[in-house]
Amino acid sequence: MGNALSKITAALLAVLLLFLFPAWQAAQRQADIRYLAAYRTLVQFTDAVRNKGVVTPAMYEDFVRELETPGGGYDVELEHRHKTYHPEYGDPADPATFLNDFTVVYDAYDTSEILQVMFPAENGQKGGAYELQEGDFFAVTALDRSRSPYEILTEFLYPGAGGTHPTLLTYGGMVLNEDY
């Protein structure tokens, strides 16, 4: 009985070492490549928006399509923060009490407001480009909502490890130009 048990254990260990571990490593490389491709797409789109100062419907649709090409689906969040200056007054009702100072305030616009400009819901109204101004901030966040083969194999090989966290990609910065 002990000899049979050791042979079964050796066979299971051989299967694990010869098949599952190389498959797990290949899946890990595939997940890394998919992550890098998605991040490259995110950076290219965000830099194009920052350099042009505009998001067109064609740019956005191409970005979403290219982001989902390597596989998986992403939840995309756009954020535009518009810089405005508010003058400081001792008495807001009296313009003569200007304190020679300004407060910088950022008005934030999220994905729904940006997409409403590009793709209006009303029939007959044509959508257009969403324009930004130089000095504004624009950021894109993409959350991978799919499970990769790497995550599935990791959960199989390491049960109870808590699983892997979803991939979150974020990139953004200041709008550099108004080229529209």
Write a structural description:
The chain has 180 residues and is of the alpha+beta class. It is 44% helix and 26% strand. It has helices at residues 2-52, 57-67, 111-118, 149-157; strands at residues 54-55, 74-89, 98-109, 130-131, 137-144, 168-174. The termini are far apart.
Number of helical regions:
4
Q: Can you summarize the main beta sheet?
A: 4 strands, antiparallel
Oligomer: single chain
Output the structural class: alpha+beta
Q: What brief labels describe this structure?
A:
4 helices, 44% helix, 180 residues, alpha+beta, elongated, two-stranded antiparallel sheet, 26% strand
The gist of it:
This protein is α+β, with helices and mostly antiparallel strands and 180 residues long. Helices cover 44% and strands 26% of the residues. The strands form two sheets. The chain has a four-stranded antiparallel β-sheet with strand order 3-2-5-6. Strands 1-4 form a two-stranded antiparallel ribbon.
Record the SSE blueprint:
Layout: H1 2-52, E1 54-55, H2 57-67, E2 74-89, E3 98-109, H3 111-118, E4 130-131, E5 137-144, H4 149-157, E6 168-174
Antiparallel strand pairs: 1-4, 2-3, 2-5, 5-6
Helix pairs in contact: 1-2, 1-4
